[in-house]
Amino acid sequence: MSERGGQSAARGRPAAGRPAGPRAAEIRGAALALFAERGYAATTMADIGASVGVRGPSLYKHVGSKQELLARIMTGTMEDLLRTHRAAVTGCEDQVERLRRATEAHVRYHARHRQEAFVGTREIRSLEEPHRAEVLTLRAAYEQAFRDLLTEGVEAGRFRVPTVKLTSYAILDLGMGVAVWYREDADLTEDQVVYQYGDFALRLAGVR
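Above: the chain sequence. Below: its structure as tokens.
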């Protein structure tokens, strides 16, 4: 999940992707599953309410609209990825190890949150402003975090890449690909996939 932009804006509302209360969280989960299965356009608020046993006006006590649900899911996903990235690289100074940790965190998140990854990639077209701009800004910040890691490694003589931008896209695609094919009952465990994809990222970066 990647694209252009800068920072998350906290505007005095609950954290994106996290509606308050267990019922609201249940509604968010139902919306996510339906958006992944049917698509945003083909899902109605009635469908979402039926999934959690909430009808009509009662549903709107927990969420304002279908668009609000989509925005919460997509901004919440990007905020989670940014937090996961920061946690992975904090306290590590070695450029090679930082890139491995960041890639492993990226791949592990996509293996565990396949629906979020799928909806985030497919439904960017369904977001209305200002939600679309906010998600694109978060995506750009996430992309830039990987470019910064690569740039630091190149400048330190640890990486050798044709272009930082294309290499960052290739590494980000590792996670998005895992979200498509990975299943818990596959031949490889999550840890095996994560470690091997970390190796792939180091090769893409031309580790010396």
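Residues 131-155 form the longest helix (25 residues).
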